[in-house]
Amino acid sequence: MKVAIVTDSNSGITQKQGKEAGIYVVPMPFMMDGEMYYEDISLSQQEFYEKLENGADISTSQPSPGDLMDLWNELLKEYEAIVHIPMSSGLSSSCQTAIMLAEDYEGKVFVVNNQRISVTQRQSVLDAKEMADQGISPQVIKEKLEETKMDSTIYITLDTLEYLKKGGRITPAAALLGSFLRIKPVLTIQGEKLDAFAKARTMKQAKAMMIAAIKKDMDERFNDPEGRVTHMAVVHSDSMEAAQEFKRELMELFPETGEIYVDHLSLSVSCHIGPGALAVTCTKKINL
User: Which is an annotated Pfam family here (predicted)?
Assistant: First the structure.
């Protein structure tokens, strides 16, 4: 069976990367100062951060049902089925919308709800493509990705509390106090949503906390203390130099994990946490 793999730009997969890999990427829409932009189509990473730092009023949205159905309809002229992998249902309503729309496609569109975002979502997409290339059915691909949905972990430290305040996730007073005390909050994504994890006073301390948390997860959750069967990645919001430095530190600590992938955080996350954020993620490899 010929199966198309579709995702959205929250995965971090660019339009160019998608074309090279045979993956279809739906651009996420952003409303910025009253104007609609589409990630990696009419909005680049650089433009996004420039607008963010200039105080633009930014809100995220989801792909329109019409755009999504147009893509599916076009793909089904060439493919027998579609596996669609959107961002976590806990972070966007786009997953639920896709599930609802798929009901009209008579079992030809399989929407995966496996609570992933950014590079963990990207890994799910790459795994799906590999399974599809091996001739595995779309139903089995969906089941495999959903069965292993909690086999990933993300820890993020923020450079500023300003954007959490803007989004109403903390009060202005808490943001002011945190900035005064130079607090670097460490957040975590474990499936459904972005949660508080710890507080640090310096980036060095925050990185140490994230490393300790990753070690614990790899040991206790993934049963892989050396990282032999785990994909590790470093992601950032407009902070490539710091991300490359963090990668070098992690490669010394986990030499058995192989190459550590480095990428930007998806813009849907970045608009809530601001520039200068740094994250580490682990995703257990799927037995195909």
Answer: DegV
Cα(173)–Cα(202) distance, rounded to whole angstroms? 21
Dihedral in degrees, nearest 10, Cα atoms 66, 97, 271, 239: -90
Strands ordered across the beta sheet of 194-200:
194-200, 184-189, 152-157, 278-284, 230-236, 261-264
18 has a pLDDT exceeding 70: yes
Exposure class string for 28-62: b at 16+ Cβ within 10 A, else e: bbbebeeeebbbbeebebeebbebbeeebebebeb
Tell me how far apart the alpha carbons of residues 269 and 277 are, in angstroms, rounded to a whole number.
10
Length of the chain: 288
Among 53, 3, 287, CA closest to 151: 287
- Which band of pLDDT confidence, cut at 50, 70 and 90, is reported for residue 180? very low
Q: Is the Cβ–Cβ distance between 164 and 170 less than 8 Å?
A: yes
How many Å apart are CA 89 and CA 41, to the nearest integer?
Answer: 24
Binned at pLDDT 50, 70 and 90, residue 179 comes out as low
Q: What are the residue ranges of helices labelled H in the chain?
A: 15-21, 45-53, 65-75, 94-102, 118-133, 138-147, 162-166, 172-180, 203-216, 240-253, 267-273
Contact between 8 and 86 (Cβ < 8 Å): yes
Q: Tell me, what amino acid is at 157?
A: T
The number of C-alpha atoms within 13 Å of 69 and in the hemisphere containing its C-beta is 11
pLDDT of residue 59: 84
**CA 198/CA 103 separation, integer angstroms:** 41
Whether 153 contacts 195, CB under 8 Å: no
